[in-house]
Design a protein that fits this description.
A 3-stranded antiparallel beta sheet has the order 4-1-5. It contains 16 helices and 5 strands.
Length: 423
């Protein structure tokens, strides 16, 4: 590892990119500790500690919500906007054509994604302010129209600021900026979690801590195996004779990854599963049948087993869904046939498409079950042991390890490019 760090330091461009990325992440953490004026932070922390749903959002955002900071929404609205446009590209022909236009089309889609992030951030910040304003902990004072507008604009500006930082980091090509911001938020919250575990430690709970440690090790090992796992489909290219020369005839393989969707299903599932109880929180203090329904919804999602089943189902389903969005057997089969390639024993065209689809479905099942189990294993342990520690440890470790692997690969690629240029 130290040898690799020394090699990175010796390559000027790569060293500058790494230092720039670290500086941007430090700026993000500084912004995460700048609170919005007029908020009782101590009462906010009491509210988050007593509310499972909001506590989950706080941990996932890296603690920015706990301080009611100017970047309390994190990059959540930007991720939501990105997912929306990925889904719209499946049903709107114009967006699908943009995706096929290469870099120029992707830049247009990125521009639309940024524009859509602004209204999403406004809506989410307004909803969060209203929700905390109705809390019994007196987190926010009575806000007038100007104060409400100022607070919404501040939080929205913080989200846009993080989106800008993420894109600056991505341009350096050593990792995805949005993923690194989420990664940094989770990693910087770990010392506080460790401190709480040490303070509340008792010899009687040693078995519980060992269970969580085993889950952490299994998660790290499992994520590495699943992330790196792939099925190599053999592909042969027919020989073509032109004059006195022979072209083609090569044998290669088509890699199909076990977890092609990455951590997107986890992020999407968290966003969806948090939405119903968050909306219901607005009306629990009302009267009538509607308030009773909202209270029932909140109680339903606070039930550990029901929450775990829903979480498992959503992660499993979104893994299949997102893979279907990014993996197209028909296009791969057409490209192979056009280039004179074929899978040995499989006829080109429809038979190849069916074979790739069936193989990918089997691989997705393994990846989907793995992601879903990793997501809910800490919840199961919490239900069995009764401890409140490491509520989403599996999800956190999954994101941290996946982003670390992706960043390492991009840095290695940059080092290889530099070595190639020197030759």
């Amino acid at each position: 590892m130290w040898e690799k760090i020394q090699r990175i330091w010796k390559i000027k461009d790569l060293r500058n990119s790494v230092l720039f990325t670290l500086a941007m992440l430090v700026i993000f953490r500084i912004a995460a500790h700048i609170p919005v004026p007029g908020v009782d932070v101590e009462n906010l922390r009491k509210f988050l500690s007593g509310n499972q749903i909001m506590g989950l959002m706080n941990v996932f955002s890296g603690g920015t919500m706990e301080n009611f900071s100017i970047v309390m929404l994190g990059v959540g609205p930007y991720i939501t906007s990105s997912i929306i446009f990925q889904l719209l590209a499946m049903v709107i022909p114009r967006l699908e054509e943009m995706q096929k236009e290469g870099e120029a089309g992707q830049q247009k889609i990125n521009m639309y994604t940024r524009w859509a992030t602004v209204p999403l951030a406004v809506l989410q910040s307004y909803a969060m302010i209203r929700l905390l304003g109705q809390s019994q902990y007196q987190i926010l004072p009575q806000l007038g129209g100007l104060a409400m507008f100022s607070m919404i604009m501040t939080i929205t500006g913080g989200t846009i600021f993080l989106m800008w930082l993420g894109e600056l980091i991505t341009e350096k090509k050593i990792g995805n900026g949005t993923s690194l911001i989420i990664f940094t938020g989770i990693v910087t919250s770990l010392p506080k979690v460790a401190q709480n575990v040490i303070i509340n430690y008792s010899p009687a709970e040693l078995y519980t801590y060992l269970l969580f440690a085993v889950i952490a090790v299994v998660t790290v090992v499992g994520v590495v195996i699943i992330s790196e796992g792939q099925r190599n489909i053999p592909v042969s290219y027919a020989k073509q004779i032109r004059g006195n020369r022979t072209y083609g005839g090569a044998n290669t393989h088509l890699p199909l990854r076990v977890n092609m969707a990455g951590v997107i299903p986890i992020i999407f599932a968290i966003s969806v599963i948090l939405f119903p109880p968050m909306i219901a929180q607005f009306f629990v203090n009302g009267a009538g049948w509607w308030a009773a329904v909202c209270k029932a919804v909140v109680e339903l999602f606070n039930n550990q087993w029901i929450y775990g089943i829903l979480y498992f189902t959503l992660v499993f389903g979104f893994t299949y869904f997102y893979t279907a969005v990014i993996f197209h057997p028909q296009k791969i089969a057409e490209n192979l046939q056009r280039q004179g390639g074929f899978i040995p024993g499989i006829r080109p065209g429809k038979e190849t498409e069916k074979y790739l689809g069936l193989t990918m479905n089997r691989l997705i099942f393994v990846g989907a079950v793995f992601l879903a189990l990793i997501a809910i294993l800490p919840l199961i342990l919490r239900g069995l042991t009764g401890t409140q520690s490491l509520a989403i440890g599996g999800t956190s470790l999954l994101i941290v390890v996946s982003v670390a692997i992706e960043t390492t690969k991009q840095i290695d690629a940059q080092m290889e490019i530099h070595e190639y240029d020197r030759m």
